[in-house]
From TrEMBL:
<keyword id="KW-1133">Transmembrane helix</keyword>
<feature type="transmembrane region" description="Helical">
    <location>
        <begin position="151"/>
        <end position="173"/>
    </location>
</feature>
<keyword id="KW-0472">Membrane</keyword>
<feature type="domain" description="G-protein coupled receptors family 1 profile">
    <location>
        <begin position="53"/>
        <end position="328"/>
    </location>
</feature>
<keyword id="KW-0812">Transmembrane</keyword>
<feature type="transmembrane region" description="Helical">
    <location>
        <begin position="199"/>
        <end position="221"/>
    </location>
</feature>
<keyword id="KW-0297">G-protein coupled receptor</keyword>
<feature type="transmembrane region" description="Helical">
    <location>
        <begin position="310"/>
        <end position="331"/>
    </location>
</feature>
<dbReference type="InterPro" id="IPR017452">
    <property type="entry name" value="GPCR_Rhodpsn_7TM"/>
</dbReference>
<feature type="transmembrane region" description="Helical">
    <location>
        <begin position="113"/>
        <end position="131"/>
    </location>
</feature>
<keyword id="KW-0675">Receptor</keyword>
<feature type="transmembrane region" description="Helical">
    <location>
        <begin position="74"/>
        <end position="93"/>
    </location>
</feature>
<protein>
    <recommendedName>
        <fullName>G-protein coupled receptors family 1 profile domain-containing protein</fullName>
    </recommendedName>
</protein>
<dbReference type="GO" id="GO:0004983">
    <property type="term" value="F:neuropeptide Y receptor activity"/>
</dbReference>
<keyword id="KW-0807">Transducer</keyword>
<comment type="similarity">
    <text>Belongs to the G-protein coupled receptor 1 family.</text>
</comment>
<feature type="transmembrane region" description="Helical">
    <location>
        <begin position="268"/>
        <end position="290"/>
    </location>
</feature>
Length: 387
C-alpha cells in the first residue's frame, strides 16, 4: 500500500533492510496530467536549447585556435558537462510519461550516476573559472597562472575525481519492485549495524560536491567585486583631482564610457553568482531532505516529499546548462565575433554553391570560380573579466 504518490512499500532482499518504504525519484503515480505535461514541456525545451547553445560554444572554441585560452578551455569542459547532463532528459521524459520505471536496472544506475558526476564537474568548473578570474584581477601580477594544457589537465582530474566519488551511487541505485508490483528506480543504502552508511556518504559528498565549490565561487567573486569597486572609486577620485570642475567634454565622455563598461561587468558577474546559487542550492537542499524524510521507521508514514519536488529541483539545475553558454558565451565579445564569422562563412559557402549550380557546374565552360571575400574578425587579446 502506498501512503503517497512517491513512497512505496516493498521487501529489500539485497541490502538487508527487509520490508521498508522506497522513494521513487523519477516515478510518481497519481500525478495530474496537467502537471506532467508542464514538466515534459520544460524538459524538452531545455534539452533543445542546451544542445544548440553548447554546441555553438564548443564549435567556436574548437574551430578557431585563437579562442583556445585558459578560460575557454574551462568553458569547453563546461559545455561537455552540460551536454552530458542534459543527455539524460529523454529517459526522464519517458519515465514521467509512463510513471513506472521501464528502462531496466542498468539505466537506473547510469542515469543518477551521470547526473551526480556532471553536477560535480559543472560546479567545480565554474569554480575554476572564478579562481582564474580572481588571479587575473585581484592577485598581482594580475595574470593567470595556468596554461590551456594545465587547464585541460585540471578538468580531466575533476572528471576522474567525480567518477570515483560517485561510484557508490551507481552501486546503490537500483530497480526495485514494490508490493504493488510496480517498478521504481530508487536509492537503497547498505545496512550496517555499526556505521550509518547513508550519513557517512551524504554529508561529505554534499560538502565536497556542492557546499565547497559554491562557497569558493561566492568568495572569489566577492573579492572581484571589491576590487572592481575600489578601481571605480579610484578612477573617479583621480579624475576629480586632476580635472576638477573644468573637465573637457571629450574626457568626461570617455570617463562615462569607462565607468559604464565597468558597471556592466559587475552586473554580469553578479548575475552569474545569483544564477548559480539559485539553480544549484534547491537540489542540494532537496537531496538532504530526501535523506531525512526516508529515515523514518516503517510505522511512521507522515512523508512530506513527493517525486515532483526532486524533479523540479533537477529541472532548475538542468536549466543552468542553458544559462551557462549565454552568460559565458553570448555575453562575450570574442564569442559573438566567432558566431558572426561562422555565419558569414556559411553564407559565403551557400553563395558559392548557388553560383556554381547556376553557371552549370564546375565542368561548364561558363563556370567561374568566385573569389572568396576575406574579412577580418579581430579577437581581443587583452585579458577580460568577461572573456
Amino acid at each position: 500500500m502506498s501512503y503517497n504518490s512517491s513512497y512505496f512499500f516493498g521487501d529489500d532482499t539485497i541490502s538487508g533492510w527487509g520490508p521498508r518504504y522506497f522513494f521513487s525519484f523519477y516515478s510518481e503515480y497519481g500525478e495530474g496530467r496537467s502537471g506532467m505535461i508542464i514538466e515534459v514541456s520544460f524538459f524538452v525545451v531545455i534539452f533543445v536549447l542546451s544542445f544548440i547553445a553548447n554546441l555553438m560554444i564548443a564549435a567556436a572554441v574548437l574551430k578557431y585556435p585563437e579562442m583556445r585560452t585558459v578560460t575557454n578551455c574551462f568553458l569547453l569542459n563546461l559545455t561537455a558537462a552540460d551536454i552530458a547532463f542534459v543527455a539524460g532528459i529523454p529517459a526522464l521524459v519517458y519515465t514521467r510519461l509512463n510513471h513506472e520505471w521501464e528502462l531496466g536496472n542498468f539505466a537506473c544506475k547510469l542515469l543518477p550516476y551521470s547526473q551526480f558526476v556532471c553536477g560535480f564537474v559543472l560546479l567545480w568548473t565554474l569554480t575554476w573559472i572564478s579562481m582564474d578570474r580572481y588571479r587575473c584581477i585581484v592577485v598581482p601580477p594580475f595574470r593567470s597562472q595556468l596554461t590551456p594544457k594545465r587547464a585541460c589537465l585540471l578538468t580531466t582530474i575533476t572528471w576522474l575525481i567525480a567518477s570515483v566519488i560517485f561510484l557508490p551511487v551507481a552501486l546503490w541505485f537500483r530497480e526495485q519492485t514494490t508490493d504493488n508490483n510496480l517498478r521504481i528506480c530508487t536509492l537503497v543504502f547498505p545496512k550496517n549495524d555499526t556505521v550509518n552508511v547513508s550519513l557517512l556518504f551524504l554529508v561529505p559528498t554534499l560538502l565536497l560536491s556542492c557546499i565547497a565549490p559554491l562557497t569558493m565561487f561566492v568568495y572569489y567573486y566577492q573579492q572581484i567585486f571589491r576590487k572592481l569597486n575600489e578601481t571605480k572609486d579610484r578612477w573617479r577620485n583621480n579624475d576629480k583631482n586632476k580635472f576638477g570642475s573644468n573637465k573637457p567634454d571629450v574626457l568626461r565622455q570617455q570617463e562615462e564610457i569607462r565607468l559604464n563598461r565597468h558597471m556592466r561587468v559587475i552586473r554580469i558577474l553578479l548575475l552569474n553568482v545569483l544564477v548559480v546559487l539559485i539553480m544549484w542550492l534547491p537540489i542540494t537542499v532537496i537531496m538532504f531532505l530526501i535523506y531525512v524524510d526516508g529515515s523514518r521507521p516503517n510505522h511512521d508514514t507522515n512523508f512530506f516529499l513527493r517525486s515532483h519536488h526532486f524533479i523540479w529541483t533537477l529541472l532548475i539545475a538542468l536549466l543552468n546548462t542553458v544559462v551557462n553558454p549565454l552568460l559565458y558565451g553570448v555575453m562575450s565579445e570574442n564569442f559573438r565575433k566567432c558566431f558572426l564569422r561562422m555565419r558569414f562563412l556559411s553564407r559565403q559557402r551557400k553563395a558559392l554553391t548557388r553560383q556554381i549550380f547556376c553557371d552549370g557546374g564546375p565542368g561548364s565552360s561558363s563556370s567561374k570560380t568566385p573569389t572568396m571575400v576575406k574579412t577580418q574578425f579581430q579577437f581581443t587579446n587583452a585579458i577580460s573579466i568577461i572573456d
